[in-house]
Amino acid sequence: MKIAVTLLLAALSLSAQTKPAPAKSAPAKSALDKPTLEAYLRYSELWVPQVTVKIDDPKPSTIVKDYYDVWVHLSYNGSMKDEMYYVSKDGKNVLRGNAFDIAKSPFEADLQLLKEDTQPNFGAGDKAAVNLIVFGDFQCPVCQKEETELRKNLPAAFGDKVRVYFNDFPLTSIHPWAMKASVIGRCMYHEGANTFWDYHDWIYGNQDQFTLENLDGKVQDWAKTKNLNADKIKACTEDKVASGEVDRSVAMGRNLQVNATPTLFINGRKMEGALEWNILSQLLQIELDHQALVAKEAAANDDSCCTVQIPTLGGKK
């Protein structure tokens, strides 16, 4: 009997030892883990292995509740592109697209990024109803066509209503002298707004004559015809101030997901590629009409125009 019990206990012990342990569940994936998010996006977006991916740290979204804003930066063969994704705070969901606050402009996010206080501009005053912002490349043939149309037609059609701003966005991977031309342009802007626009019109008007090797010499010759100090211009192009200004313009473009030139923003509305003047003028008029309607609605809701105020000593009412 004792032998049977002993054998039974031994069998039970052996069974317990050989019984497989319960399988461990795989850890839950989280889009807040950068390698996990990169692998997921590479598969879903079909990014080739040669594309380099850099993912920023998540920041609380001001638009999508319970989500983070996550910027993803792509680079390939000298070209760069930025994409925004929204990741839920629990890391389970990823959204791509635009989110809107119905009480604000649908282009509010881009308007917050467009900083134009140091950019060359022409047209209406600072309080223009419409701001047309151009990201351009001096070596880009399509930009040349767009800029020529703007300079020729816009002042006569919308001179007191539209202001145009120019932003450097040289595509260095395909245009070898574009960056140098942009840096020179900033140096011309230091000499004065009119000097910049003279240079702008001249370089676009003679675009097919320039190479990386002859650009400096041709600029020096042109500067002398304008009674500019050619040595001062040359020294400016060799310091870091002008190039830093171009770099800031490029960085702003990337934050706005500018990937082509020209790219236009009409009061924040993004338009890629050159637009025929008849199309662009219609878009500008649509925006002017919209702004007039907004101003009319604001005036209708403002009762300050009908309030009588009697001034008293100390400014008290």
Any overview of this molecule?
By secondary structure, this protein is of the alpha+beta class. The protein has two domains: 62 residues, Nuclear Transport Factor 2, Chain: A (Roll), CATH 3.10.450; 189 residues, Glutaredoxin, CATH 3.40.30. 44% of the residues lie in helices and 17% in strands. The chain is built from ten helices and ten strands. The longest helix is centred in the last third of the chain and has 24 residues. The mean pLDDT is 87.
Secondary structure topology:
Layout: H1 2-18, H2 34-45, E1 52-55, E2 59-60, E3 67-76, E4 79-88, E5 94-95, H3 108-113, E6 121-123, E7 130-136, H4 141-158, E8 162-168, H5 178-191, H6 193-205, H7 215-225, H8 230-238, H9 240-255, E9 263-266, E10 269-272, H10 277-300
Parallel strand pairs: 7-8
Antiparallel strand pairs: 1-3, 2-3, 3-4, 4-5, 6-8, 7-9, 9-10
Helix pairs in contact: 5-6, 5-8, 5-9, 7-8
Please summarize what this structure is.
The protein is an alpha+beta fold.
What brief labels describe this structure?
317 residues; alpha+beta; Nuclear Transport Factor 2, Chain: A; Glutaredoxin; 2 domains; 5-stranded mixed β-sheet; 10 strands; 17% strand; globular
Number of domains: 2
**What is the string of helix and strand elements?**
HHEEEEEHEEHEHHHHHEEH
Largest sheet: 5 strands, antiparallel
Indicate the CATH class of the largest domain: Alpha Beta
